[in-house]
Design goal:
By secondary structure, the protein is an alpha+beta fold. It is built from eight helices and nine strands. The strands form two sheets. A seven-stranded mixed beta barrel has the order 1-2-6-9-8-7-5. Helix 4 packs parallel to helix 6.
């Protein structure tokens, strides 16, 4: 199932306009997630919306938004009142200015989106806007309304399309001085810096995100598969602490020695990965062993006694598409 657009409207640069759709560029739906259940019954926990004072359940039509001004004092704001202050940018991304990408502080970046033409018309106008931004080597700054809130969005060319990144407002970014003022001003020797640089050089390489592995996610999948198959779970031993670092120079020297011991093996492993790239995984959740309805226990027993060849290659369940909010 194709993903749903988070927003549809128009992209406008002065008098040049084209219909566009905004899609999230990232997703968390592939990660293993848990539900809260009753340990005694195995039933899922259900949450109810109740009045904090009376304890009575409140229906959706009786729930409105309220801004807290004092203890137990709220200013009620209705949906109609919110609609009345709707902004002009609700259905249009208006490009206000162009700025160098290097001028945007990374702390202002929130999340990326893909902005694509919506429908068969407007592709020429879309291409004009995209190539204008590309030729100027700048980022277009505009505004877009998502979930009734206006956001600043930075648009930049990405292959044949446009990537839009939501930006934070200044009041959302905390000043570093609140945290850095107490950092001591220490003097480092040239030898310390040279040793540290040597470690960095040994660990330097190209950015290859396809080689990244979510070890915790993998461990979760392994745990769930073992529990489904009825395999006993051995308690993990607590790793021994390395102790406090007393001498910084000694720690740097030991780090370099460790790098020399591990570098060849790591290099061979990386080269092997580079020669045989991983196939695109639609979702790590798909790697979980299947369970068919109420026969889950029987399926788990069969999985535990199945030949090794079949267990090494579990059947993948189809990925579920997440509805965009």
């Amino acid at each position: 199932m194709a993903p749903r657009a988070n927003w549809k409207g128009f992209l406008r640069l002065s008098l040049v306009t084209c219909p566009v759709a905004l899609y999230p560029a990232t997703s968390d739906t592939e990660k293993v997630s848990f539900n809260q259940i009753n340990r005694k019954t195995g039933h899922r926990i259900k949450y109810l919306k109740v009045d904090a004072e009376t304890g009575d359940e409140v229906t959706s039509e009786d729930i409105v938004k309220g801004y807290k001004v004092d203890t137990d004092t709220y200013i009620e704001v209705t949906k109609d009142e919110l609609d009345d202050i709707a902004l002009d940018s609700t259905h249009t991304i208006e490009i206000d200015e162009f700025v160098p990408k290097a001028d945007i502080d990374n702390r202002y970046l929130i999340r990326p989106y893909y902005l694509v033409p919506d429908g068969k018309v407007g592709h020429d106008a879309y291409a004009v806007i995209r190539e204008t931004i590309r030729s100027m080597d700048k980022v277009a700054i505009g505004r877009v309304v998502l979930t009734n809130r206006e956001h600043i969005i930075a648009l930049e060319p990405l292959e044949t399309g446009l990537m839009g990144t939501l930006l934070r407002y200044p009041y959302e970014v905390r000043s570093e001085s609140e945290y850095f003022d107490d950092i001591q001003d220490v003097k480092l020797t040239r030898d310390m810096l040279d040793l540290a640089k040597h470690i960095v050089e040994k660990k330097s390489g190209a950015f290859e995100p396809e080689l990244f592995e979510d070890h915790y996610e993998t461990a979760l999948i392994d745990l769930i598969n073992k529990k489904r198959a009825g395999t006993p779970i051995a308690a993990k031993s607590t790793p021994k602490s390395g102790g406090n670092v007393i001498n910084l120079m000694d720690a740097l020297k030991k780090s370099i020695a460790n790098e020399k011991d591990t570098a060849p093996a790591a290099k061979v492993a990386n080269q092997a990965k580079a020669k045989k790239p991983k196939k695109r995984v639609e979702g790590q959740r798909e790697m979980l062993l299947p369970i068919a309805g109420k026969g889950g226990k029987e399926a788990a027993a069969k999985a535990a006694t199945a030949p090794k060849k079949a267990a090494d290659k579990p059947v993948r369940a189809p990925a579920r598409a997440k509805k965009a909010g």
